[in-house]
Design brief:
This protein is an alpha+beta fold. It is built from two helices and five strands; from the N terminus they run H-E-H-E-E-E-E. It folds into two domains: about 45 residues, no CATH class; about 90 residues, Nuclear Transport Factor 2, Chain: A (Roll). It has a five-stranded antiparallel sheet. A hairpin with a 6-residue loop joins strand 3 and strand 4. This is Cystatin domain-containing protein. Keywords: Protease inhibitor, Thiol protease inhibitor.
Length: about 140
């Protein structure tokens, strides 16, 4: 399978590829791979983010809120990171739980965001894949 069919690779293309090929292990010789698995502590999937104040993580979280505000015409204000995971794949793919509040309310709510970080790129180093309120 060619990711993106020769066109620009999108986050959806990567998610679909990982889903169809057994996750990150496909790149390290797992299902669909041909070389022996590599156990370097990074292969095998999502890793919890230990330092929620890591500047790259906070930058991705703030970007997610700002981009969501643009796309949904909302006025959310970033409060803090609650938790998150990261996956190394052509940069970092972050699954974040973010505390944010609407400018009109006093109580923050939690939101789940997926952000693709490619900080070495000058154009569009961060891409927001999804942003949803966590209910319940």
């Amino acid at each position: 399978m060619v990711i993106g069919g020769g066109d620009a690779v999108t986050l959806s293309d990567i998610n679909q590829f990982l889903f169809e090929n057994g996750g990150v292990s496909a790149f390290a010789g797992g299902p669909g791979g041909s070389s022996p698995p590599i156990d370097d502590g990074r292969s095998g999937g999502w890793m919890p983010i230990e330092d929620l104040k890591d500047p790259e993580v906070v930058m991705a979280a703030k970007f997610a809120v700002k981009e969501h505000n643009k796309q949904a015409n909302t006025t959310l204000i970033f409060i803090t990171m609650v938790k998150g995971e990261r996956l190394e794949v052509a940069g970092w793919l972050f699954r974040l739980v973010i505390s944010a509040k609407d400018g009109r309310t006093t109580k923050p709510k939690n939101y789940r965001a997926v952000v693709w970080s490619r900080v070495w790129l000058k154009k569009k180093p961060l891409i927001l894949d999804s942003f949803k309120e966590i209910r319940g």
